[in-house]
Amino acid sequence: MFDHTLSAHLKSGEIADNVITDGSDTCTYAGLPGRFDALDDFAARAGLPGDECPVLRCGNTLGEAVMLLWMLSRKKDFVLLPRVGGDKARRKLEDANLPEFCKNTVELSPDTDTAVVEANTNYKKYVNDETGGKIFLRTSGSTAEPKLVRHSNEKLFENALNCVDRFALRVTDRVVIPVPIYHMYGLGAGFLPGFIAGVSMHLIDGTNIIKYMGCEARFKPNVSYMTPTLCQMALRTRKNSYAYRLVVTAGDRINKTTFLDFEERFGKLINLYGSTELGAIATSDPGASLETRADGIVRTMPGVEAALEDMDKDLSELMCRHGSGFETYVDRTGAALAGDADGWFKTKDLGRLISRDTFKVIGRTGNSVNRNGILTAFSEVESLMEQGIADVQFAVVLAKEEENVRGKTLVACCELKPGVEAEGKDIRARCFDVMMRHMVPDEVLIVKELPRLPNGKFDRKKVEELINK
Amino acid sequence: MSGPILNQLKDIIANKLDVNLSIDEIDENVSLYEDGLGLDSIAIVDLIVSIEKEFSMGIEDEELNADLFKNLNTLAEFIEKKLKN
Predict the structure, then answer these.
(1) 10 Å Cβ neighbour count for A324?
(2) Burial environment of residue A461 by CB neighbours within 10 A (0 to 12, 13 to 18, 19 or more)
(3) The whole model's pTM is what?
(4) B51, closest residue in chain A (CA to CA)
(5) HEC states along A444-465?
(6) CA A226, A60, A141, A405: dihedral to nearest 10 degrees?
(7) Where are the extended beta strands (E) located within A367-461?
(8) Taking CB atoms and an 8 Å limit, are B61 and A240 in contact across chains?
(9) S-S: A336 plus which of A49, A144, A328, A394, CB 3.0-4.6 Å?
(10) Could you report the average pLDDT of every consecutive run of 10 residues in chain A (469 residues)?
């Protein structure tokens, strides 16, 4: 699959000079086999045999992207996780949660740009699948213990091939990927389709508008993978227009005004709907009218079926089945978890079917929202506030309909510990120390006592009334 | 050099951006990003928009580059030059 792709590219000679770059370091497609050989030597020296399943800690640098392609091309089993960086507290937390079936972690040293292998202290054993080529991704859902999703090399390839076709990627395209390639969107819809099509690609590590503009000025991309937040940032800061052939956006619903404004200034916008489990499920039809695309109507990818959980209703939970989707969830030990026998995946999104192969996503069904394109579970924010902020006894987190640049407005309603007095703004300031930025509530309300149901659980409807007063 | 502008920039960051930093905590010599003041991508956009509003000036696309946003000193110098012109 991925190994044959590179061979075919190089045999054709068509793309030998096309590049993959992060702005600092650049590699041509013709240079990739040499890099892969060097990584083979490194693996032999570092004691990374092919029958183990290391964690690959990955960001968007060229070195990391090459390592990822090398693992896929050599059909290695690996768990793909984000690079942790130098924050010791975060690294400790991440290390404590490493899967027990991974003997080692592999990452690039930021100082030397060489691969470094470290032992995973949680390691117990890995039962090697005879077929090899298993890729484990972590769900972006911010639950206490995120799920690991097992994909096969072949299905991931098929998934990426769907995107090559849908986006009509061709060797002359110049693609910018400012979204992380350790997530399914950046990987399965952006980076791998780009590689399969042999396009020149510019990855951006730690994206912000300044880096993005620098890339655009130097690299002159004609295809971009954005998020609604990035689209809004571009609209807020940029004075000039830029003509992209295609801009893909995913990670959250993009509102119609942003969609229309963005397309007018920057070129055709395509909304992609997907998940870590199924990869690219549906996208706006590139041939559909602007009105249809801006309305959020998407068409399923080849091999995808869509249905509503309750087909008698106009609006119900969207369920999808994808022949090139994931194999199974696994627990920390690597053991497969029981799934739905019929292969239907519950998306936790409310959807409306338009036709057999088109639908529209209306919002989330559960107690979670997308913020900065990251699924944010209310329960996790509540737990972090209760455990991390000494003055907070209980917290109930809800979202308001109104949106800001990070997504739906997140509000926390808190009951403080007996005898404690604090204002909402003080509690909110302390949230910055105990949670990721996208989780920090936009408002914190302090109440004497949170409303409860007769069974003692918090009455979320009454809290919602309080918040909206 | 750029003293009043620097102070105004610190005031913008502490009081107009949603970043949980006080004026005393803002070092004009460190990076604006994760390895310094810790401004994330959205805060950087808010900073650009606030600068344009507070200093009644426009920052052109070609001026939005990494050198300009290296730290608050470089940003203050840029604003000072731009205001003089």
Answers:
(1) 23
(2) exposed
(3) 0.85
(4) A237
(5) EEEECCCCECCCCCECHHHHHH
(6) -40
(7) 368-371, 374-377, 392-404, 407-416, 443-447
(8) yes
(9) A328
(10) 80 86 95 94 83 91 96 94 79 84 88 84 81 85 66 95 97 96 96 96 94 94 94 92 96 82 96 95 96 94 94 86 93 81 85 93 79 79 88 91 83 92 94 90 94 79 87
Partners of B62 on chain A (C-beta within 8 Å) are 217
Enter the tokens of residue A433: 């120390």
ipTM here = 0.88
Spell out which residues of chain B touch residue A211, defining contact as CB-CB under 8 Å: 66
Decide if A237 and B49 are in contact by the 8 Å CB cutoff. Answer: yes
Q: Can you tell me whether residue A79 is helix, strand or coil? A: strand
Verify whether the Cβ–Cβ distance B66 to A211 is below 8 Å: yes
Contact: A405, B69; criterion CB under 8 Å: no
The count of C-alpha atoms lying within 13 angstroms of the C-alpha of A436, restricted to the half-sphere facing its C-beta, is 12
- Token pair, residue A313, equals 């209703």
Q: How far does the CA of residue A271 sit from the closest CA of chain B (Å)?
A: 21
User: Which two three-digit tokens encode residue A252?
Assistant: 């959250």
Quick one: tokens of A310? 């309750």
